[in-house]
Write a structure and sequence with these properties.
144 residues; alpha+beta; five-stranded antiparallel beta sheet
Length: 144
């Protein structure tokens, strides 16, 4: 059975202390921590370091990250802040490719018309240089 190998499967579970990215709603784009699981649809989340107030949130609005804080169920806001700074979640999050892609997408969305024009010209110049290098490489292989 080639599809049933060890180590595969889910690795990010809904659990107390799991850091989550808020996908939509008023706090869209912010990180929060699952403090307690209310039922199969909702969790109590808190994000004091990112400006998310302690509130209940639907799991459909949360995207789970790979970061987990060591918290007990129903941990207070002060405890969440201590663990957040101890684990350096903000710094580790910025280092992920997920956060970098979102930052690049935001930068592209904020480009002016002139910035898009400059980007287009830079890409054209790069393509021209790449094609010249490719031609040189092909010619050197043919001459051998």
């Amino acid at each position: 059975r080639p599809f049933l190998t060890r180590g595969m499967g889910f690795s990010k579970f809904v659990e107390v202390g799991r850091v989550a990215y808020i996908a939509y709603g008023p706090n869209q784009g912010k990180l929060c921590v699952i403090v307690n699981v209310i039922d199969q649809n909702r969790a109590l989340v808190d994000g004091p370091c990112t400006g998310v107030k302690r509130q209940q949130m639907n799991f459909k609005a949360l995207h789970l990250t790979r970061f987990v804080l060591k918290l007990g169920p129903g941990a207070r806001t002060g405890t969440v802040i201590k663990q957040w700074t101890l684990e350096e979640v903000a710094k580790n999050w910025e280092a992920t490719s997920w956060a970098q892609k979102m930052a690049a997408k935001k930068r592209r969305a904020n480009l002016t018309d002139f910035d898009r024009f400059k980007l287009m010209k830079a890409k054209q110049a790069r393509r021209g240089m790449e094609s010249q290098l490719h031609k040189k490489a092909v010619m050197s292989l043919r001459s051998k």
